[in-house]
Amino acid sequence: MQYAIVTELNRCIGCLSCSVACKCENNVPIGNFWQKVMRVGSTPINEGDDFPNVEMYFLPVGCQHCKDPECVKVCPTGASHKKEDGTVQIDKEKCIGCQFCVMACPYGVRYLNEEVKVVEKCTLCEHLTAEGKDPECVTGCVGLARHFGDLDDPASDVAKMVAAAGEKAYRLKDVGNGPSCVYILNKQKWRG
Q1: Tens-digit pLDDT profile for residues 94-113
Q2: pLDDT tens, 122-141?
Q3: Domain for residue 83, yes or no?
Q4: Is residue 102 part of a domain?
């Protein structure tokens, strides 16, 4: 089992509703984010192109819930751990705030909560998914760009989306950790 989020980048409008919904649901401190939305581009469609022949898209980034997470490997207390559902979680009772996991994460999605002195990150709203609900960033996405499910279940909607997307399905750079979240981008729709 591998719970993950699949994001259709052509549907993401960069409204930040995923970030806001996440902050509200998880009480994320001011100045920190479990979901960040980056603007990528504008870049030439073809080498040498200028405006208006450019493309851009928005890229929501949170914890990638990696298959072989670096953050778990370096945690000295076992606070960072991988669950049977494929998500990477932090046991706040075991976390000593050493931030080894923050330094090991290749995506920069962990931070030390200074108030409680423990590391935090996206949990895929573990408290909601345990009740059969979607993570709040999925529920709050006004562009209906984000989808949640089990990538390892070929019958799941997200696995079918990824299979149908073929070479248009991407993951963030893999440094041996196997990021699980998938991004689908059809660049043809972004032409100026």
Answers
A1: 999 999 999 999 999 999 99
A2: 999 999 999 999 999 999 99
A3: no
A4: no
